[in-house]
Amino acid sequence: MRLQDKVALVTGAAQGIGRAIALRLARDGAAVLVEDRQDNASAQETLALLRQQGAQAALLVGDVGQVADCRRVVAEGVACMGRIDVLVNNAGVERRAPFFDAEEADYDLVLGVNLKGPFFLSQAFARHVRERGGGGRIVNVSSVHEELPFPHFASYCASKGGLKMLMRDLAIELAPLGISVNNVAPGAVKTPINAKLMAQPALLEALLADIPLGRLGAPEDVAAAVAFLAGADAGYVTGTTLTVDGGLLWNYSEQ
Q1: How far, in Å, CA of 34 to CA of 247, rounded?
Q2: For residue 110, which of 171, 173, 160 has the smallest C-alpha distance?
Q3: 254 pLDDT exceeds 60?
Q4: Residue 197 pLDDT > 90
Q5: Alpha carbons 33 and 26: distance in angstroms, whole number
Q6: Looking at the domain that runs over 7-244, which CATH code has it been given?
Q7: Is the CB of residue 154 less than 8 Å from the CB of residue 191?
Q8: What's the whole-number average pLDDT of the chain?
Q9: Which H or E run includes 173?
Q10: Whose CA is closest to 129, among 77, 68, 67?
Q11: N or C: where does the chain have the smaller number of CB atoms within 10 Å of the terminal CB?
């Protein structure tokens, strides 16, 4: 197994893409630190599924939009497992609003979770790697909207565009420590965040017409890309975005 003896920290792992990533990394041999904002039924279910697979796993609770929580989560993860080798910045939120109506609280929430969190989690992780040596991997779950405009979601696009440049910068700054930094950019994926879309056949049909492969992605599609970037086969890959979107990005037209 290509992640045998590695420890991965996955944020926002209670459901959806985060859960799929946690399960895939465990399947590849990693011990997994499940992070989420609350210790709730969904987080406990992820933990139970990991343990059913025979994986070593633990739950960490924290709000990644808060710097103190970012630092505490990494410290607790190291204390629990002895080390962290792979950081997956998956936690993310979005808020829909026309630009003229966007509120400061929503902006702060989206930028806090989607950009501030990965910034300071990566900082805490890099400090850990600098102390222990041996390198590591940072994989950010971004979005096609790091490239693609999304009207009424300006804060979300800003956060993902910022995450793209943060990834590129850290790939250079952290390379001397043996840390690779990459993004995975999903398109439309079957997750709770897209539940309303999937419940509206006309909207779903229009979206599917923009996806050359003709289907929504599954969380496991994204997890496979993360697993590749976390593993030895991607040892010479850094500073790049791996897009997982069925061809949507270069075939999209605003309806």
Answers
A1: 30
A2: 160
A3: no
A4: no
A5: 10
A6: 3.40.50.720
A7: no
A8: 96
A9: helix 154-173
A10: 77
A11: C
pLDDT surpasses 60 at 255: no
Burial class (CB in 10 A: 0-12, 13-18, 19+), 51: middle
Q: How many other CB atoms are there within 10 angstroms of residue 165's CB atom?
A: 11
What is the C-alpha separation between 67 and 118, in angstroms, rounded? 10
How far are the Cα atoms of 33, 108, 120 from residue 156, in angstroms, in the given order? 26, 11, 18
Convert the pLDDT of each residue in 149-174 to its tens digit. Answer: 999 999 999 999 999 999 999 999 99
Residue 253: its pLDDT value, please? 65
Parallel/antiparallel/unpaired status of strands 7-10 and 86-89: parallel
Q: Residue 138, class by beta-carbon neighbours within 10 Å (0-12 exposed, 13-18 middle, 19+ buried)?
A: buried
Q: Average pLDDT, stretch 26-31? A: 98
pLDDT-derived band at 81 (thresholds 50, 70, 90) equals very high
C-alpha closest to that of 241 among 141, 154, 149: 141
Round to whole Å and give the CA distance between 234 and 137.
10
Please count the residues of the chain. 255
Residue pLDDT, tens place only, 95-108: 999 999 999 999 99
Q: Which residues contact 179 (CB under 8 A, 6 or more apart)?
A: 126, 129, 135, 136, 137, 138, 170
Please identify which of the residues 107, 156, 236, 252 carries the catalytic annotation.
Answer: 156
* Confidence class for position 202, pLDDT limits 50, 70, 90: confident
- pTM for this predicted structure: 0.96
User: Could you confirm whether 236 is annotated as catalytic?
Assistant: no
